[in-house]
Amino acid sequence: MQNYQNAPFKPTPESGLTTTAVTTQLTKFGKNELVAARPVPLWRKIWQHMSDVSSLVLLFAVGLATYLALAQNGGWTKTIVIGAILVINVCIGLYQEASAEKSLAALKSMSLPTANVRRDGKVQTIAAPEIVPGDLVLLKAGDQVPADAVVLEATNLAVDEAVLTGESEAVEKSIYQDTGELDDNCQVYAGTAVTAGTALIQVLTTGMATELGQIAGLLNKTKQRATPLQGRLNRLSSWLTTFAVLGGITIFALSVWVQNQGLADSLMIGVSLAVAAVPETLPIIVTISLSHGVRRMADRNAIMRRVSAVETIGSVDVIASDKTGTLTQNRMTITKYWTPTTGIMTTEQPLPSAGQTLMRYLGLATNAEINHVDGEEQAIGDATELAVIRWLAQYDLDRPSLEAQTPRIAEDPFDSTKKMMTTVHELAHGRRLVIVKGAWYRLPLKPDQASLAAGQVAHDEFGQAALRVLAVGYRIIPADVQTTDWDDLTADLQLAGLIGLIDPPRPEVIPAIRAAKQAGIFPVMITGDHLVTAKAIAEEIGILTPELQAISGDELRQLSDEELTAQIDQIAVYARVSPSDKIRIVQAWQSLGKTVAMTGDGVNDAPALKAADVGIAMGITGTEVSKEAADMVLTDDNFATIMAAVKEGRTVYQNIIKAVEFLVGVNFAQIFLMVGAVLFGWGAPLLAEQLLIINVLADGIPGFFISQEPGEPQAMQQPPVANDESILARGLGQRLFIRAATFTVLTLGIYAFGRFGRFGLTNGQAPVGMTMVFLVLALGSMIDIYAIKDRRPLSWSSMTRNPMLNRGLLLGILVVLAIAVIPPFRSFFSLVTLPALGWLTVLVATLIPTFVLELNKRWQARRQSRLVVNTAE
Questions:
Q1: How far apart (Å, rounded) are the C-alpha atoms in residues 105 and 98?
Q2: Which pLDDT does position 102 carry in this prediction?
């Protein structure tokens, strides 16, 4: 081992560190392991859910109900029921977070349990966490690098750095020269894998100081944004709370100063209004819708790790995709070749004699193997040589059969200096075959100007198509020529031909990209690969079009955040980017209010997967780190599955919006009913427990099954829901207003009819009005779910295509009727027996909201048709 006098690191003696030095270093730098961020304690998670707007309203209602139960002996029914709903909502929120982030645990699992080090002059096998800076570590093919280190000795060392850089090809490493500077060529990094050769390395950094550790640090610091749905529902809760507070103040003032009611009665009305303001079952219905979406997505090979991401994937504006293994197959493939007699041909064309010779020479000069064990492919060797093996397999050939006919008797291995590999094979009749493969400009070919000129043209054309080029030369020599002088053996080679290799796109990607654009989604490629290669793939699959740009990581880093944000919608391809670059791209899109999905499979993708609104990892080729950082995992690594998930996400979002329309419209009507009745001097038309039955059972039970609704036919032809789009957009506000107005006018009229009508009762008519209002609100709001669940006009097929909803609706109707008819229940909820006229009035009134909603639906459809015609003209 050399004496590195000018090294930018302190060289370790050839015998390795001493036990004392190891102890010192371990104390100074700590163990070679990654440190996870401190988890959020359970009490803080509970507090976060308790501080939600809707939870605060329920908490306030529980407090008032408890006060009335203690001070006025008002019973504990309200306290128990409202409190139970509050506890259920908090538990649902905690359940959604049950699968907390495990990215750091996965990163730790990538560390080797053991490593071979040289200490005190002996090679020892130690636990990888015990490695310290300065340790001398011995590596061989198949090993994983345990820490960031400098290469001191190496033989044909090649390292797969795809988990860090995203590049599909192994990187050749050289020995550190005593120049006083370190570069990537002479360094290896923790988490990468040795694919060829051997090496002696000296550890420079361990644990969190390594490149892998810096990614872990990014994971610790990166925060996930609230989903668009969470934001919209929070804003909706704020609006409802505002209405509840204003309504509560109004009712309290009217009750105390206008109607001269006592404080306890006024507080009771306040509790009733608070209950009316909050759609208690909405969080549960949202969770059921999301969970149902999770199951349906799992059936389509998309596993959701975070339930709320089901809705978010349907709202994505941008899909930022890694290239290697996501858009491409992560498998180098020979797509074109050239020989002096055939010219450029594709591997899909019939193979002529010269092509067969080129393929056979490549097979003989290859060391890779592909074995099949239990139906699974096990590939051993360099990606380029594996491409050769697969080309042979297309013609039912393999390397052992070729070598049986033409045995190999000598080999000069490939190295990064020569950029060539030479093999010598035995031929019949006392001859030998010399085969050389390597870089075009390194092969010592015969000065045949015509062949060289044609080969140069083919080489340049392959390069312009982003193909990696490999040249093959050969020579026939007598058997008595010495095989130790490699320079003499490889002189004056005949040119056999060139091959062009690339990691090809997945066949399903092109239609998936087209579908994404039709759905208003902007697809972006983010890769650590070369810009030329990235552009070629992006153009082929339709991501990069003439009006869009492709830039490198160096160009990206020269842009300020403001400059990047200003032009980001014109950039479709980013090449040679780092993990921090990926996060920056995601955050730039998010700063424009866009919802971003990021796909990837490597460790280098994990921070960006976490920063994105929806992180999507590959289930087959993806690392455990990327899977744990992601919100969604594709079990088939199929990019088209993402679009299926988008469609499912849009269906889930539509169903949640339908649930909001179903529940909130009646809640507004309840607020206006309560305030209006008090303003008219009629007192509270409904009690808190009656409102709870309507909100939780009558509305909740049918609402649970609205998640079973199939998607709207035009869901994938509409633009994504904007991140800042109001929950009341796309006609929901208008529909809520009509439904709330209909129920408000209807219930006030029904209460007045029941309160002041002549029903033959001698003990006052107010209980009759209360009973009628209860039934109309409960039954009417359930039945008009048919008008809400489908944007198209109501039909028999739309009413019968969701049998679960029909059964839930029937159950809800039976519960409401049981409460109104069975004496103990009727008495418990302060209802009375209705005469025949009362029941007939209720029956007619319950159908009015559905009739009004259907009229509005048809009017809106005709209005939209006229707008389309006018626009076309």
A1: 16
A2: 42
Residues 328 and 506 sit within 8 Å (Cβ to Cβ): yes
Separation of alpha carbons 336 and 340, rounded Å? 14
Strand partners, 370: 379
Per-residue pLDDT tens for 301-330?
Answer: 888 877 677 878 888 999 998 787 778 887
CA dihedral 681, 240, 734, 284 (to 10 degrees): -120
In whole angstroms, what is the distance from residue 137 CA to residue 123 CA? Answer: 9
Q: Determine the residue type at 405.
A: Q
Q: Which residue has the tokens 């090993």?
A: 143
Residue range 79-138, pLDDT digits in tens = 776 777 677 667 765 654 554 344 334 434 443 467 899 999 898 988 888 999 999 999
Query: For residues 204 and 189, what is the distance between their CA atoms, to the nearest angstrom?
Result: 10
| DSSP characters over 346-359 | ETTS---HHHHHHH
pTM of the model as a whole: 0.67
d(CA 525, CA 598): 10
* Mean pLDDT over the full length of the chain: 82
The single residue listed with the structure tokens 């668009």 is 228
133 neighbors 29 (Cβ within 8 angstroms): yes
Q: Note whether 249 and 259 are within 8 A (CB).
A: no
3-state secondary structure of 608: helix
Contact 57, 244 (CB under 8 A): yes
Among 718, 840, 828, 713, which residue's Cα sits nearest to residue 775?
Answer: 840
More reliable by pLDDT, 63 or 98: 63
Question: Which residue carries 């997945």 as its tokens?
Answer: 506
Per-residue CA distances from 335 to 377, 465, 509, 608 (Å): 21, 11, 18, 32
Q: Given this model, what pLDDT does residue 108 score?
A: 43
773: its two tokens = 């209002």
C-alpha dihedral (865, 867, 868, 869), degrees to nearest 10: 90
- Tokens standing for 271? 């509790």
What CA–CA distance (Å, rounded) separates 703 from 687? 22
Amino acid code (one letter) for 797: S
Over residues 363-418, the pLDDT tens digits come to 999 988 888 776 677 777 888 899 999 999 999 999 999 999 999 998 888 876 78
CB distance 471 to 455 below 8 Å: yes
Could you report the per-residue pLDDT of 2-35, keeping only the tens digit for each? 777 778 888 999 899 999 999 999 999 998 887 6
Active site residues: 322
CB 573 within 8 Å of CB 592: no
